Amino acid sequence: MDDLIQEFQNIFNTTKTPREFFAPGRINLIGEHTDYNGGHVFPASISFGTYAVAVKRNDATLRFYSMNFPEVGVIKCDLSDLTFNPEHDWANYPKGMIKYIMEQGHEIEHGADILYYGNIPNGAGLSSSASIEMVTGVLLENLFNQKINRIEMIKLGQKVENEYIGVNSGIMDQFAIGMGKKNHAILLDCQTLDYNYAPIELENHAIIIMNTNKQRTLAGSKYNERRQQCEQALADLKRELSINSLGDLSNEQFDQHKYLIKNEIDRKRAKHAVTENVRTLDALKKLQEGDLIGFGELINASHHSLKNDYEVTGIELDTLVEAAWKQDGVIGGRMTGAGFGGCAIAIVEKNKIDDFQTNVYQIYTKSIGYEPTFYTASISDGAKEITEGVR
């Protein structure tokens, strides 16, 4: 933080001491491609994230600077014009947040100088954009003495993605980042926003994030295709069943009625959506019972389903996860995120982490031809001010 404050004072040519804020990134432990199928997700906020340090100004000018994009320099705008501007690059995320918070009737009467720094690995799929949105939300709330309902702030973050930036994403990322709790995951129903916290008591284990370092070129087009296949499967099932989503079905109900789904590919996609939702609900029970081994088995089953029924893994993720499964001290591993690249996670005994990383690194690099990257993530609190004794 001292380095960020020093950088802030240099960039904005001031001796003022800024206030300090942090919003985490997130991983999804289980519950992949269930959100748009009426199911549950199981994310947790992590220790990597976005820091923001800020000082309120006396005029209406906003000045943004990111240590991650120093070549862009300081981006300036005025509170009276917060429209999307392609030339403002990454700063459109905080601009969108400020615009929507003001439109909600919150008084942001002055501008601010804000410096951002994120340590979420680029392209890892750990949700850096939602992290920027939520750190901006808590910054505005505290800097301008506003009371902003946290769920409303989360919804505004999603609105920035959907309407301001133009990305059709769900609410999981902002929810996990806004509502995160140290050493807990969140079981979230993405339709109703009902949620439960589940303790993640890893004790002798750690969550290792494994980045394939493959760009996710297929994720967008295949994502839309999978959504359409699930919608068709649901339409077929609705001819005889009174359901609103695939997430309404138990495994038994699906097995009894899957014959209604005409296309075999659609049937496989629906099978994943149903079984993954059941696994996610079971995961909550396993953790509440302290059954980490049972939780690991569900994580493994999730990856099998994503590979065989949903077909969104690809050779890089499969190589990484299958190498992880073979290592001593691993109780579970799977891809996380949209797929076709990005990251996987593994739960590994702490005293086996060095051997685990060495072995998986060698297997992956030999097979794929380039290196994976490993991060040890602790599960942290959600977005908050971190200034000591609020300056």
Report mean pLDDT, rounded to a whole number. Answer: 94
The coarse silhouette is: globular
Strand residues, percent: 15-25%
* Separation of the first and last Cα atoms: 14 Å
Number of helices: 11
Please summarize the sheet with the most strands: 6 strands, mixed
Question: What does this protein structure show overall?
Answer:
The chain has helices at 2-11, 92-103, 128-143, 150-165, 172-179, 219-237, 251-257, 264-288, 292-308, 315-325, 353-368, and strands at residues 19-28, 40-41, 43-56, 61-66, 75-78, 112-118, 184-189, 195-199, 205-211, 330-336, 343-349, 373-377, 384-385. The two termini are 14 Å apart. It has a six-stranded mixed sheet with strand order 5-4-6-3-1-13, sandwiched between helices. Strands 10-11-9-12 form a four-stranded antiparallel sheet. It has a three-stranded antiparallel sheet with strand order 2-7-8, sandwiched between helices. The protein is globular and about 65 Å long. The chain is 40% helix and 21% strand. It is of the alpha+beta class and 391 residues long. Strand 10 (330-336) and strand 11 form a beta hairpin. Helix 10 runs antiparallel to helix 11 (353-368).
